Amino acid sequence: MLKLTSVHTSYDHIKALKGIDIEVDKGEIACLIGSNGAGKTTTLLTISGILKPDSGEITFEGEPLKNISPHNIVNKGICQVPEGRRVFPRLTVLENIEMGAFGAKGKNFHRNLEKIFLLFPILKERKNQMGGTLSGGEQQMLAIGRALMANPKLLLLDEPSLGLAPIMVSKIFKTIKEINEEGVTILLVEQNAKAALRLSHCGYVLENGTIKLHGSGEELLHNEDVKKAYLGE
Length: 233
Description:
Layout: E1 2-11, E2 14-24, E3 29-33, H1 40-48, E4 55-60, E5 63-64, H2 70-76, E6 78-81, H3 93-99, H4 109-119, H5 121-125, H6 136-148, E7 154-158, H7 166-181, E8 185-189, H8 193-199, E9 202-207, E10 210-216, H9 217-221, H10 224-231
Parallel strand pairs: 3-8, 3-9, 6-7, 7-8
Antiparallel strand pairs: 1-2, 1-4, 4-5, 9-10
Helix pairs in contact: 3-6
């Protein structure tokens, strides 16, 4: 479904990605783990078209994404939930969700809205509340719900558990699994490596802009190098 081949991306003259290869198959959850500054967010921004690769190729459903604008990448079915959630604080919960449908041309608006309210009942309860007054966990639900309004085929999640209480982390990961079971393919960037690998069908370890390891989530969970570096074992 998604394939990155020898992708290089730079910030100014600093190489952030140094020839990475990633494949995400339709219907699976893939995760990308690594330390801060390894290039995880850069990878998602490059896929989304916000950053342009220096070289290499990115294809989605067999079609190259080169020179396609970010909003047209969204229209093709790739949608990103950014790190830090970035909800619109002065818009209501409902208005935030509606913003996610801006590029979807009204397709299945009411059906999607009801699905989001079923997935996150608290958002329905607080639909008239300002987005900036929600808790961190509720804002993460709102950010995911906003992305789902765009009818994504592939959902890019950047650190969805960051800064959340353990009970909310469990809820978010449970929801990610439910979204995947509904047919949405997911590429997950996550500092909580153990939880991410348990959830994922496959995983990639990114170090200093290069892929050092890849395999099934189960394989990486039991890899000694991954245990020492990322799982605290």
